[in-house]
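Repro:
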Amino acid sequence: MARLPRCGVVMKKVQFQSRWLPYLLLLPQLAIVTLFFLWPAAEAVQSSFYLEDPFGFGSTFVGFDNFVDTVTSTDYGRVARFTAVFTFFVTFLSLGIALLLAVKADKVLRGSSSYKTLLMWVYAVAPPVAGLIGVMLFDQHVGPIVDFFALFGWNLQIGVNYFDTAFAMTTTAVWKQIPVNFIFFLSGLQGISKSVQEAASIDCRSGFRRFWTVTFPLLAPTGFFLLIINITYAFFDTFGIVDVLVKQEPGNNPVTLVYKVFLDGFRGNDLGGSSAQSVILMALVFILTVVQFRLIERRVHYT
C-alpha cells in the first residue's frame, strides 16, 4: 500500500500484487455480457442477412432484403409510431409523477417511513405481474377502473378497442415505473445541502419558483440518468406488460417494436425478418443514446 499526502489528508492508493488480478475480477461480468448480449447480438446480425428455415433445415443468403421488407412494411411503420408515442408518454408521466411524489415525500415529517414504503413497494413487482394486475384493474366485468370511467360514459374495452388497450398499457407501464424514479428523485432531493435550501428560501418566497430555479437544476444529473433509464424501460422492459395485456392475440391491438420482434420470430416463424427488426431496434437505441449524451448532457451541470 502506498500513502500519498494530499492537502493534509493521507490518501491510500490501491495496487494489485498481480497484473492479472484486475482482469480476473472483471471476468465474471465480461462473461455475462458476452454470453447474454454480445453473442446473441452477433447471431441476430448474422441471421438478419438470411432467409432461414424455422426448423433449422437450411438458410438462404438474401442480403439486405429483410431490412428493406421491414422498413417498407406498413405494419412496421404503424408499430414504430405507436412505440414512439408510447415511449414518450410512459417516460414523461413516470418522471413527472415520481418527481411530484418525491417532492411531497421529502416534506413529510411524521409517518414518512410508512409513506415512502407505500410508494416504493411496486418496485418489487415484475412486469408480467404488473401486466396481470393491469388486466384485473381493466377487466370489463369486475375492473374498478372500467367501472370508474363508465360513470363518465367511457366504456373501456381492453383487447377490442385500439385506443383503450393503448391507454391500459400506458397506465400500467407508468404505474410500474414510478417507484424506481421516486427512489432516485427522493435520494437526489435529500442530497441537496440544507444550507442551499435555506439560502434559496431567504432569497425567494415562492416555493414554485424556488423549485424550478434551485432544486430542479440540482436534480439535473439524476433526471438525465432517469431519462435514459425510462426510455430503455419503455422500449424493452414493458414486453411482459404488453404480452399479458394483449393476451398473445394482438390482432389490431397496439404492440411495441420489441414485442413485434417476438411475434414475427416465434409466432410467424420469420427468423430473418425478426432478426432484422432487432438489429434496427438496437441501432435506434444506440443513436438515441448518443444524441442524449451529446446534446442533453451538455445542459446538465454536475456538482
